[in-house]
Write a structure and sequence with these properties.
The chain contains six helices and five strands; from the N terminus they run αααααβββββα. It has 164 residues and is an alpha+beta fold.
Length: 164
């Protein structure tokens, strides 16, 4: 995952995400802020209308959809889009660090636009995926000299809804 520049800060990123969610929740096509366009450009990727809509769909509802679910949601805004184009958009967004792939065993790949450092909790009953904040301090008993730059931690169990 590509790290945000320290000058951009988390509050600026959260403001951007909130603006996108509020815009997208009105059923209107999503127009992403210039910072996201700059991030794509820095990765050598052009921000197309299709990529903008796919990213907007992912940010609108952070439920970790599959590519097919992203396709069906994006098709509401861009009726001419194909599933192949959605896959290509997802690959470009992953390459730029704006989207993460979430994989568990043999289940379909899911996609996450949460740029904050986090892990995922998979409900073994209903199949839902939830973001989980995990402190990355000194929670690991690493041998001397090891430095963690990134961790993928996936938790499994039952969500509160399924635990009732």
């Amino acid at each position: 995952m590509m790290k945000m520049k320290s000058s951009e800060g988390n509050s600026g990123l959260l403001r951007i995400i909130l603006d996108i969610i509020l815009t997208a929740s009105n059923g209107v096509s999503v127009k992403l802020p210039g910072q996201i366009s700059q991030r794509l450009t820095a990765s050598g990727i052009r921000l197309t209308k299709q990529r903008e809509q796919v990213l907007g769909v992912l940010m609108q509802k952070p439920d970790h959809p599959t590519a097919t679910e992203v396709f069906l949601r994006t098709k509401k805004h861009v009726p001419s889009i194909s599933l192949g184009t959605v896959y290509n958009c997802l690959e470009a967004l992953i390459a730029s660090g704006l989207v993460k792939q979430v994989n568990l065993d043999r289940a379909p790949t899911r996609y996450c636009a949460n740029l904050m450092e986090h892990s995922h909790f998979f409900c073994e009953r209903c199949g839902s995926v939830h973001d989980v904040n995990i402190a990355m301090g000194n929670v690991w008993d690493l041998p001397p000299g090891f430095k963690v730059s990134h961790a993928d931690v996936n938790l499994r169990g039952t969500c509160p809804k399924c635990s009732e």
